[in-house]
Every structure is written in C-alpha cells, then in structure tokens.
Amino acid sequence: MATEENNAVVSDFISFLNASPTPFHARSESKKRLRSAGFEQLSEREVWNLEAGKKYFFTRNHSTIVAFAIGKKYVAGNGFYILGAHTDSPCLKLKPVSKVIKGGYLEVGVQTYGGGLWHTWFDRDLTVAGRVIIREEKEGSTSYSHRLVRIDEPIMRIPNLAIHLDRNVNDGFKANAQTQLLPILATSVKAELNKAVYENGSVESGKQSDGKKASDKADTINTKHHSLLLQLLASKLGCEPDNICDFELQACDTQPSIVAGAAKEFIFSGRLDNLCMSFCSLKALVDATSSHSSLEEEVGVRMVALFDHEECGSKSAQGAGSPVMLNALSRVTNSFSSNPKMLDKAIQRSFLVSADMAHALHPNYMDKQEDNHQPKLHGGLVIKHNANQCYATNAVTSFIFREIASKHNLPIQDFVVRNDMPCGSTIGPILASGMGIRTVDVGAPQLSMHSIREMCAAADVKYSYEHFKAFFQDFSQLDAKIAVDI
C-alpha cells in the first residue's frame, strides 16, 4: 500500500478518535459515516423490509451499532461474516448524585468503570462528555430529547499529593478510589460568586432570569449535582439548567489523539482499546461495500457489530451478552424466508472475528510474556489463543484468518498468556458460546492498555484495516474449500 494511502487511513482514524470521547459519541460518529456511505437506518421497533444488495444499520441505546450489507446472491440460510468490537473503555463515570463539597472545594463524585489504570488519571486536564435528557416545552406540550454533549475545555483535575506529604509514594502508589479519585471542579468561594452572577441573569446562554427561585425541578437536580456543572452543560446545550432532567456523563482527557514519536510511527491517544478495532472494522465494511460491484458475487451478509459494556462483562441490553446479535441474524434471515430452520443453518455457515486490542511486548517488562509469544508493534494483527477458552480461537478459525493474511501479504502474530498469569477476556467467547458461531479472537498490539493515554503503531492500524477488508472480500470463497463437520 502506498505511503499516501497509509497516511490517509491513520489520519481518518485520528479524526474518529477525536470525535469519540464516549461510546455515545463513537456510535454517533459511526452512524454519520455509515449514512454517508449509503447505509439505510433501521429501527428495532419496526418491521424490516430488506433487499439483497442493499446496506443497513440499526442502533441500540445510542451506544451499540450493528451495520450489514447483504450480498446480491444471498438467500436465507447463507452465512454472516461478522467483525465484532466494542465502543467502551475504562473511565470515570459521574455518580447519580455527583455533588461533593470538602475542605472548601467542589468535587465531582465518580464511579470507576472497567479495569482502568487509575493512577494515570491524576494530574490530567479533564472535562466531561456523554448524553443528557432535556425537557422541551413547546406550545403547551412537554417532550423529552436525548442530546450528546461535550465540554471542550478542561474543567476538572485530580491532583496528586505532594511527595513531602507522602515520602513512600514512589514505593508503590495505590489510590483509594472512593476518597482520593475525585476530580476538583472549583473552589466553594468561586462557585458562590458564579452562582450569584447566574441568578442575576448573566449566563453565557444570554437568557435572562427573573431573579425568582428556580423551579422545584431545578431544585431537585441542583441537590444532586453542582449548579456550576449544570450551568456549563446548559450553556453548551443551549438550554436552561432546570431543563436538564438526567444525564450519563464521564470524565474525559482533553488532550487530543495524535501521531507521535521521533519517527512519527506511533499513535498516542486514550481509548485505543477498543476504538482502534471499532474504527478498522467499520472502515473495512464501508470500503468493502463501496463500489457498485462490491456485492454482485457475494452470497453472504457482511456485518459489523460494535457493542457497549465489554469492559464490565457485556451483561446489558446493549452488550454482547444480550440477544442483539442473534436478533439481527434472525431478522435478516426471516426477511428472506419463513422457514424457522434457516437461522440454524445460517449460524453454522457464519464466522465471527472478535476484534479487541492485544498486549504488545513491553521492553521494560520483558518477563511478562513468554519467549515464543511476544506480539510486536508494526507486526500486524495478533491471533489470541487460550486453552481454557478465555479466547474463542481454534485451529480452524485461526487457519482461516491466517490464510487471508497470507494471500494479501499481511503480517500476523500469535499470543498466549503465560501459564503463571491470568488471561484477559473479550466478546469472542460470549458470542461463540451463546450462538454457536465459529470465532477467532484477534487484536492489534498496543502498550499502556487501560491507561488514560495509550499507544499503538500507526502501521498496525493500516494492517488491521486491510486484513478486515480482505476478510469481507475473501471469506466466502475460502470457506467453501474447508470441510470440518462431515
């Protein structure tokens, strides 16, 4: 691939990362890209009328998205070729009651989400982003809308304690997540001054107050969250603070994602796990179905599923542990046949690539990986193996994925965790066991996994995208040559 094209893929990825501070934003950005590529949005609440050769997508909870393109030669019972990834990353999420006042400071109560490297969140310039439920009054009727929000400037920080007050901190720093992991929003004095300005009607939104006490609804939410935070959100959303009914917000690093390193070979960013695999999967589907002839000879359904809540076990209505994937396969199959046996047939002809980032060899911790399984940056996708089925890869599924790499001259690596160390998990075993679908677990190598600021190689983004695109284009023909259950 030409260097210019490599740079285009990486540049596109950086744009995707910077547009996606939360799973809600990642889904929104994915939706925008799919629509631009000619995918038609479906609703799970409605009947689907699907056609061979067409492209579709649907969303659930504004944080999970499933997109698919139906081959021109597809018939009910044919397989689904799926790339599965997740949109969430470890982070700090605001509590339902986030207002905390201690020692003259306004702090924000947060919950730890997933298994983060929480010490990396100290001394970072933080903001908030997520979704907000807004009350709207129009012509005597009330309605409620779902809005995404992101405050761009840094508004919070979790400061470290001075070494003079903890001389042993460098012997092993471990923060108490309940008492020491609270971002500081403001001092109480400044907050009171700001409140007085707001009550006099001089807020950024330009909307004047009559000086009277706010409504009971405003009092309710103001008892749960700092008025200053609500004012910032309202100003960004163009509404009044008392029209904010509820929200799901998380703390976010304000430092943008960049291409970096002395040789410009790395990507420094938050949320590489797992927005890197989400982006590569989505771009592969879009580009593998972009031309008029892309689906002419395709007999199956090319699909991408980006789930929420992988970092906490996938057990939610929009996680990989829910029926969302099975429902999608069922509805597509049933759109072309009323025979209930066709779905079972389709699943046995299907294949899932579970794409989740992998641990690259760390030069300062060489003993953490065994000699024969040391994934390297710039080494291409990593096939993950585990005898105890923490990964769903087997000899057949790894062979298929490796053959695709061989055909396109793409690098490929293998990984197993040391026998004396615990193994991570992915959506692969959840979907493989829940649906009975053939699965391979793969991921691009990275360092600093689950840190607020991670790193990977720019070349591996290109390799991953190319490998996934080749999977969509080649799987039908390759699978026809493999005989296992006969």
TrEMBL record:
Biological-process GO terms, alphabetical: proteolysis
Cofactor field: Zn(2+)
Pfam entry (one): Peptidase_M18
InterPro entries per record: Peptidase_M18, Peptidase_M18_dom2
GO molecular function list: aminopeptidase activity; metallopeptidase activity; zinc ion binding
GO cellular component terms listed in the entry, alphabetical order: cytoplasm
Gene3D superfamilies documented for this protein: Aminopeptidase i, Domain 2 (2.30.250.10), Zn peptidases (3.40.630.10)
UniProt keyword annotation of Zinc present: yes
Keywords, sorted A to Z: Aminopeptidase, Hydrolase, Metal-binding, Metalloprotease, Protease, Zinc
Keyword Metal-binding: yes
Organism superkingdom: Eukaryota
NCBIfam families: PRK02813.1
Stated family: Belongs to the peptidase M18 family.
Name the UniProt record assigns to this protein: Aspartyl aminopeptidase
Origin species: Crotalaria pallida
